[in-house]
């Protein structure tokens, strides 16, 4: 093709004496070859004079360069058509896998083609008034409530450092840095794993997330994954599935990145995640089951990388979409056949309760209000005989019926557990400031603990994490028991954490001490229950052999939060109960510290491939050093209430700990003490 000249060319094309299409700010040639595209100021006037609304100015008012460029648009489109014909010829010679990869990348490239060129208009130079806003490098602090471990550690920091020094050192936290949302300009080739690798990543998801949140159908997943290589990439209806698999690949890629290897790239999961966001663009405008599934899977990746605030927002959207299509009520299905109607209704129930369970988990982790209220929904529990979540064909019984029922029993148990979580949040950690008498507070906590113990007793034998399981080969059951154990001990520690250090730190408050002495043994029991539950959480890690075992065999999406909660309790307990008779005959201060150090070692081991684990390790290191400095500086003798120096209480500790009785009783409302107001009855398992 003979080289043609154009009145408006970039500096690079002019230097190479090559034809320039005149597109600004980056011409097509420089974009294709990766050159740096620069324009002399005298040649940019044609585009700066272009009207913002995109309407064509009269030719007599346009510069000569603009007129010439408009004339060259026809040849530009003709050239693009030639490229398309060449691609079609090459595509016909490729196999199915290469064709899909080619189509995905072409689809991405075509979406980035300027709309102005598609309509035969001049491209507009971005003016100052139309530039995209730049994101601030600093993230505003987010709210965390009293039940959050971050709230507890912040209080400890304030009490040991003082408010002035705490402001200088910054607030503790372990959230990961933000992710970029500017995926419209995704210019790297879209990532599609080889078929064998895709099935491996899917199996990682099925063996970790799916056994805990079975809102998807195993059979449907494999069918849609197989069709991924055959579907028309430009079919808009299939975009949600492409987004869902991208998020699943992101989870699988992240999980398989443990243990970390220096020679292994560790950012591939972020590419899958960005790809999922790309395909799920505008998904909020279409309320459907597949859209909710996409958001749910996205939530679990965000939880895994500790993007908790972003997960909170994403889950809120998913819940609203679920309510928009009526998932929160038991409605008659409009499916054509009874079998299809039953399967559809079962999947809707599993989806709704997955939203419910995850909502309780995040509310407990962040100390924020729950989005789903039991009295506003009425959905039957998933059936134990529901096989569609775990089998490939419900008619061929590829898994033993008892095994399938046992798998679904875990999900029902977690739903029941989540109802207890709701009561703990409402009765112990609500943001009200109404004081309760100590006996009411103790009774409420004791009642919740009894419910939790009864829940454990009602678990099926294969899910009893406090019993032996010799010769059992099921990895899924082992992982489900680990998940239940983590949830149980974590919630029990939170039930009794308001009573931590209570008898020691209220010695100079006569009004509370008079009441406290009447229930001294009960409060001592509550203190020990909190410490013991934290120790049991740490002991779950005693037999973890490597990072991979921790990530795959435990609920990684909530482990960092649970371990920080346990270790913070243990560090504080080791400092204040070192020589107290509370630990005598039960454990020792050194054992308490060892268990706290186990959590710290886990975070350090995972920090190579997890920013959140690294931040958590740094946060606990600071807490440990603060604890040591506080013990040394105050020179605490063997702890005796009568011998405790006054500055340790009023001057060194904030209201959450130094005035811990007042801090604890403000969480309860006397109207919530009655159990008769509950609108949600925990199911019998």
From TrEMBL:
Biological classification of the source: Eukaryota, Fungi, Dikarya, Ascomycota, Pezizomycotina
Keyword Flavoprotein found: no
A GO term, aspect molecular function: zinc ion binding
GO BP term, pick one: DNA-templated transcription
Keywords, in A-Z order: DNA-binding, Metal-binding, Nucleus, Transcription, Transcription regulation
Segments of this protein annotated with the region Disordered: 112-142
Domain named Zn(2)-C6 fungal-type: residues: 9-39
Metal-binding among keywords: yes
InterPro entries noted in UniProt: AtrR-like, XnlR_reg_dom, Zn2-C6_fun-type_DNA-bd_sf, Zn2Cys6_DnaBD
Cellular component GO terms, alphabetical: nucleus
Name used for this protein in its record: Fungal-specific transcription factor domain-containing protein
Subcellular location, record wording: Nucleus
